[in-house]
Amino acid sequence: MKINWGTKLGIIAACFMIFVVSMVVVISRQDVPLVEENYYEKGLNYQKEIDNNASVDSTVNVLILKEGSYASNPVVEVSKMSAGSIKSADLYFYRPSNPELDKHFTLDLVSGKTVSYPIADLSPGKWKISLNWKEGDKQFKVEKEFDR
To answer: What is the band of 28 on the pLDDT scale with cuts at 50, 70, 90?
Structure first.
């Protein structure tokens, strides 16, 4: 059976249309989580965060101790460096690739006390730690990234 060029062209066009429609269906079923639910509002207030975080390094210390350093188990240590009015802070473990794995803790920061959190139970991959606290009328934030 001989097929003329018009039929061949129609078959190729139909196959291409089926491919395009199937790709649209597959891509539309993908779940693409947002980085943050209210990222637009946070973006508008980002300059305020930058201004408040100018003197953060002298107030709170966040250490990520991995295996092989002087820690036997990988941990995150948070300690208060200066005697400010900080009593508690919020610690967020943020996983960019899967927001279902995010964790939130409230820490009691008493002067001279170090709070440790083991990170061995976190799934392997890239993580971001965010420590938020309020001192007086200012909000402060420290962020660090690490690979687990």
So the answer is: very high
User: Are 106 and 88 contacting, i.e. CB atoms less than 8 angstroms apart?
Assistant: yes
Enumerate the H helices of the chain as residue ranges: 5-28, 39-44, 46-52
Tokens, residue 37: 């639910």
Q: 70-79: b or e for each residue (b if 16 or more CB lie within 10 Å)?
A: eeeebbbebe
Amino acid at 2: K
Q: Does domain 39-147 have CATH number 3.30.70.1400?
A: no
Dihedrals phi, psi of 39, to nearest 5 degrees? -65, -30
In the predicted structure, residue 136 carries a pLDDT above the cut 90: no
Residue 92 forms beta bridges with which residues?
A: 104, 130
pLDDT tens per residue, range 78-105:
666 555 666 677 888 888 888 788 888 8
Half-sphere exposure of 132 toward its Cβ, with a 13 Å CA cutoff? 10
**3-state secondary structure (DSSP) of residue 28:** helix
Q: How many residues are there in the chain?
A: 148
